[in-house]
Every structure is written in structure tokens, then in C-alpha cells.
Design a protein that fits this description.
By secondary structure, the protein is an alpha+beta fold. The chain folds into 2 domains: about 110 residues, no CATH class; about 120 residues, Cupredoxins -  blue copper proteins (Immunoglobulin-like, Sandwich). The chain is built from 4 helices and 10 strands, in the order H-H-H-E-E-E-E-E-E-E-E-E-E-H. Helix 1 packs parallel to helix 3 and helix 2 packs antiparallel against helix 3. The longest helix is centred in the first third of the chain and has 34 residues.
Length: about 240
């Protein structure tokens, strides 16, 4: 393979990592995202997956080329080239992985900053309280709490298209707030004030779990998140306040 062909192959691999992060791509087994933050994680995962496929394809093509091109032929007893090194080739196959890793690292940093970004003045502020073995959701701006008996699954209701701040607290041991369709999770740790913000992009009801083993009844720590249009959310708030929750 000529140096020009090798550079073309390297450019193709890097191009896949760059271009695919901005395209609509298959999820490759990942749940469908339901938030803006999850969209970035999903694109990053798809980009990594396709970049890995491109690298694997390049490796297999080079292996097949070497096996076919330099196989021993029955009528050829000459020794192949015994050159101990090839400086341009060694620089090439050292530089290409470094560039690929650097590009993927850069995209990972960008997505991480977006996912962990906490902006001032969120549209909705909810205090998420975990305990053995259940959840409470305290709507701080409207001064009411959604709760359920231990072992039962309470429901958090949030508006579509609005930035929701979740302040995660535990009253006993470590827990973890995990909604698979949000494509991220965050631990509730005693003494640590963890805050995340999510912006739902579609309506629906999504299952949530505690993803940190917290005791014998850890499996009972379920909850759900229902995303509704903003008008329906305001109506739901009024109903909760009338009920005196």
C-alpha cells in the first residue's frame, strides 16, 4: 500500500469520527434518548462505535493484503526484504492512533461539558430525595412533595422542552438516580450536593431505578418520570396544589 493510500485510509477513519457525531445514526443497542443531554451522549456513542468499526475494517484490510501479497509461492524461494525498520511507515502508524484518540477525546470533553453544565435560573427545580427504599420529589418552586410508601414507585412529572434542575440528596446511604432514556445517571452521596439539569425532548413515561446497591431491598427502589407538554404540566401543578400535597 502506497503512502498516499495509507493517508487516505487514515483520513477516512478520522472523518468517520468527526462527521458521524453530527448525523442521525443508529443507536447500536442504546436506549432512545429523551433529553437534549442524552442526544449528545447518543451521538458520541454512535460516533465511537463507527470509528471502532472503521479501525477494525482498516486492520482487516491490511491483514488480508499482507497475507495475499506476501504469501510464499511454490516457485519462489527467495527471501523477502529483511529491512529492520521503515521510518515513514512507523511514524504513520504511530501518528494515526494518536490523532484518532485526540479527536475522540475532544468530542468526549465537549459532550461531558454539555451534560454536566448547570445553568442559572432553571425552569423547574426539584429536590430528589433517596432513602431506603424509596424516593421523594420535592418541587421547590411550588412547595409540595410527591411521595410514595417505601417500596412503591412515585412519579415525577416534568415539562417537555424546559430545563429541569434535579438536586440529588440522600438521607441514609448511597443511592443513584438513573433513568435509562436520559442516558446518564448520578449518585446520591451523603454530604455531597449533586445537581444535574435535563431538558426533555419528547413526551412519555420513562422508568427510573436506583443504580447503586443500597441494601437488601435495593430492587424495590423504582420510580417513573412522566414528561408532558408545558400546558399540561401547569395544569398538573395546579391540581397538586389544590390537593394540598
Amino acid at each position: 500500500m502506497s503512502p498516499r493510500a495509507r493517508w487516505r485510509a487514515a483520513a477516512a477513519v478520522i472523518g468517520v469520527a468527526i462527521v458521524t457525531t453530527g448525523c442521525e445514526l443508529p443507536r447500536f443497542g442504546m436506549p432512545e434518548s429523551a433529553t437534549e443531554q442524552g442526544d449528545g451522549i447518543q451521538k458520541l456513542w454512535s460516533g465511537f462505535f463507527l470509528a471502532a468499526c472503521a479501525v477494525a475494517l482498516l486492520v482487516y484490510v491490511l491483514l488480508i493484503f499482507v497475507l495475499v501479497r506476501y504469501r510464499r509461492r511454490p516457485d519462489d524461494d527467495d527471501l523477502p526484504s529483511q529491512s529492520g525498520y521503515h521510518i515513514p511507515l512507523e511514524i504513520t502508524y504511530t501518528a494515526i492512533p494518536i490523532v484518532i484518540v485526540a479527536v475522540l477525546f475532544a468530542f468526549s470533553t465537549i459532550v461531558e461539558r454539555d451534560v454536566t453544565d448547570v445553568k442559572p435560573d432553571p425552569d423547574v427545580s426539584i429536590e430528589v430525595i433517596g432513602f431506603q427504599w424509596g424516593w421523594q420529589f420535592r418541587y421547590q418552586d411550588d412547595d409540595f412533595t410527591v411521595a410514595a410508601p417505601a417500596g412503591e414507585a412515585p412519579e415525577m412529572v416534568i415539562p417537555e422542552g424546559e430545563r429541569v434542575q434535579l438536586r440529588l440528596q440522600t438521607v441514609d446511604v448511597n443511592h443513584s438516580f438513573w433513568v435509562p432514556n436520559f442516558l446518564s445517571k448520578r449518585d446520591l452521596i451523603p454530604g455531597i450536593d449533586n445537581v444535574i439539569q435535563v431538558t426533555p425532548t419528547r413526551t412519555g413515561s420513562f422508568v427510573g431505578r436506583c443504580a447503586e446497591f443500597c441494601g437488601l431491598d435495593h430492587w424495590r427502589m423504582g420510580f417513573s418520570v412522566r414528561v408532558v407538554p408545558p400546558a399540561d404540566y401547569r395544569q398538573w401543578l395546579a391540581e397538586q396544589q389544590e390537593a394540598g400535597r
